Amino acid sequence: MAEPSTLAIYRRLVAAQVRSQASYRASFALDLVSNVVFLGADLLAVLVVFYRVPVLGGFSLTDTLLVFGLSSLGFSLADLTVGNIDKMSRHVRTGLLDAVLIRPLGVLWQLLVLDVGVRRLGRVCSGVVVLVIAVRLAEVPVTPANLLLLVVTPLAGAVFFSAVFVATATVAFWWVDSGELTAALTYGGRDFTSYPMTVYGGWFRHLLAFGLGFGFVAYYPALVLLDRPDPLGGPAWLGWCGPLLAAVAAALAALVWRTGVRQYRSTGS
Amino acid sequence: MNVIEAHGLRKDFTVRVRKGLLRRESRAVAAVDGVDLTVRRGELLGYLGPNGAGKSTTLKMLTGVLHPSGGTVAVCGLTPVPQRIQLARRIGVVFGQRSQLWWDLPLGDSYELLRHIYRVPAAEHAARLRRCRDLLELDPFLDTPVRQLSLGQRMRGELTAALLHGPEVLFLDEPTIGLDVVSKQAVRGFLAELGATGDTTIVLTTHDLADIERLCRRIVVIDHGRVVHDGGIDALHARYGSQRRVVVDFDTAPAAVPTLPGVHLEATAGPRLTFTLDGTASVGALVSALSALGGLRDLAVTEPEIEEVIARLYRS
Amino acid sequence: MGFVTATADRLTIRNFIETVGIFRTLSSSGFRRFSTYRQATVAATATNTMFGFVRTYVMLAVAGSAVAAGGQVAGYDAPQLVTYVWAGQGLIGVVALWGWTELADRIRSGDVVTDLLRPVHPVLGYLLPDLGRAAYALLTRFVVPVAVGGLVFDMYLPQRAATYPLFAASVLLAVLVCFAGRFLVNAAGYWLLDTRGVLMGWAVCAGMLGGLYFPIRFLPDGLAAAVYLGTPFPSVLQIPLDVLVERDPPAGQLGLLGIQALWAGLLLTACVLVQRRAERRLVVQGG
């Protein structure tokens, strides 16, 4: 599969997908707009909470907005590229999976490309805007290290969330009706990472922040950017662990996916 | 040379049966239960069976979609599942009820995309497309988005899509399902021509027996996952006791009717008599016996309907 | 004359019995149909539970911060917010906040025409199975998150006995309002080619203004009142939850139920009117 033109094939497939979706002009525009509104709803929830209280888990509004911005940009990038994989159950049911299996290309890449959610571009754009505003409000010092972290963190978050999307969608190979279960860790993970980890208590925080690694998506990098020590006692370098964690998550997701495809082929369901 | 070689091919599915409120039992059901199938290069094979007999499952194992639970299978000398990508370049597949075209794009765009997916040299691709455009008359709707095509147009489009990379074997799963008479004929005519060249091996599943009579010299029938017939249509008739029918009109109803071995009088309606003949009985003997009675006005022999034969086969 | 009247009376009684029979059959069909979607129910309940944890911790942090400042948040204390979150997660499935596209799908495929052939008013034909579905969801999707929340966190239990029947009535009204809202959004498919945008708008509004992401009372008072009275969304989720956690005195609870009843009546009437227009359109244009 390492032939040089494989990438070019996928590029063509993505372009075809963009043309397909743009052919429904009105609906496309409406979708773009409502995706912006969706992010607005999440943001509003944060703002309303801070309308009632000045601090949350020891963090001010501006600090929380930085965490929120990092998390939502990473999530919306993942949602844009692989978010549609949560339709796996449908692909299994409608037989799209079979159609993909008879083509001479990788199965996962084809499924991702065949259904890339171009209209979710709106969420990415508003995610960038929110992050930029949050960085300004929190008065993050402009240093090369901080700029690097600001670029790397959403990308690592995107890879991490993509891995979560793929791994949870794979459940559909065993369990065709699992549609909503995916949302528990994808959308649930996004909600979890939108707030400082100090908000969560006990085993729940340990499980999600460290066990599953959601703490490294936005919280620890935000601490570095804010130049704050971790109230939970973690060292500062944790903020730079995002990319490593994303790589591990991607590898695990690939493994789960392969197992799932093998399972599908031996059971046909 | 054999293009497809399958021995003892089987596929078990686990079915969960509800027993009571909470208890559930898992049971293995064989969808394909030890199928032997060899297909030579250039053959046009009809693969028949009632709904749920295991036709599609067999096809999925031959094309590398599903992993067999048992037995061996080789297509074009390759083992389908581990060598899926190599195999994909050498076979073409049309599933009658699902599409491999890009729903919202003009039909022609799908062909351009498929050219890249299968890495077909531009000249080869253009030559094959030109041939399909002529034979299947695609030109009027090549620029129409696939979602706006009629079923017949779409099926012609699907056939073309499956052939543009020059596959050695073409698998067709119910390609004429739901088509009108004209479209069916177009598809059949095209397949007949494709089969006649002898370059492409074709495996066809269908419920439409006209497809079989028109296209296939060899048919394989499966039922409950097992092959119950493998051979020509004639062999099927002989084996399942197909009956020819002779209808004779006399000037006036004859007083006595001759009795011959293997010949039965089915009906008498005034001066018209209807006889059924077993596979071995001779029409000639009956005709000469009848003409000896005198007053014979008209006589017609009808060949057995394949539909009846297959119906009897499925029921048995 | 007497004879005719008698016949009419008998017919009416029989009609009534038949009608009751149809009602029972239709609503239990909804119950049975959803009880076969076992995997989907488990998946959805697990997801609701996950969100329950995240939202509870956020709300506890909010309450903690408010206590530090010396008071409640918008009239709720910590245990009330815990109950609010978990019962809210449970109610999502009962009212079927999102994801009902059956009518829109049937309009697109043209199957909706067969609804007119049934001996039941089409709005009832959808409402009754929906009530059966809600009953099933109450036993599964409501009970599980509330039980989990109760085991892990300190939950507020109603102090007044009257709150329980009031809550039950409020949930029933919430199901009616939510059904009517979903029906109307789906019915947009009679006039629009693509209803995805409208469905998405409903999903955003129902979640945000329904009180799922944060209690609407968190908003400035004037704004909150405007949302309660001016939109049907709080009637879908927020009001039953307010009733359950006794956010308001009994008179206030009754007032909230009144708002719900108003919206239920208004929206169901709108459903009937919209259905009539749609039928005329179907008959005149032949679909």
Automatic annotation (TrEMBL), chain A:
Transmembrane feature ranges: 28-53, 65-83, 95-114, 120-138, 147-176, 203-225, 237-257
PANTHER family assigned to the protein according to its UniProt record, in alphabetical order: INTEGRAL MEMBRANE TRANSPORT PROTEIN, SLR0610 PROTEIN-RELATED
Recorded superkingdom: Bacteria
UniProt keyword Ubl conjugation present: no
Coiled coil: none
UniProt keyword list: Membrane, Transmembrane, Transmembrane helix
Claim: Membrane is one of the keywords in the record: yes
Record's protein name: Transporter
UniProt xrefs under InterPro entries: ABC-2_transporter-like
UniProtKB/TrEMBL annotation, chain B:
UniProt GO MF annotations: ATP binding; ATP hydrolysis activity
Membrane topology designation: Peripheral membrane protein
UniProt cross-references to SUPFAM superfamilies, sorted A to Z: P-loop containing nucleoside triphosphate hydrolases
Pfam families membership: ABC_tran
Compartments reported by the entry: Cell membrane
GO biological process: response to antibiotic
Membrane spanning stretches: none
Source organism, top-level taxon: Bacteria
Domain ABC transporter: 17-249
Keyword Transmembrane attached: no
One term under GO cellular component: plasma membrane
InterPro entries: AAA+_ATPase (IPR003593), ABC_transporter-like_ATP-bd (IPR003439), ABC_transporter_ATP-binding (IPR050763), P-loop_NTPase (IPR027417)
Key words of the record: Antibiotic resistance, ATP-binding, Nucleotide-binding, Transport
Protein name: ABC transporter ATP-binding protein
Upper taxonomic lineage: Bacteria, Bacillati, Actinomycetota, Actinomycetes, Micromonosporales
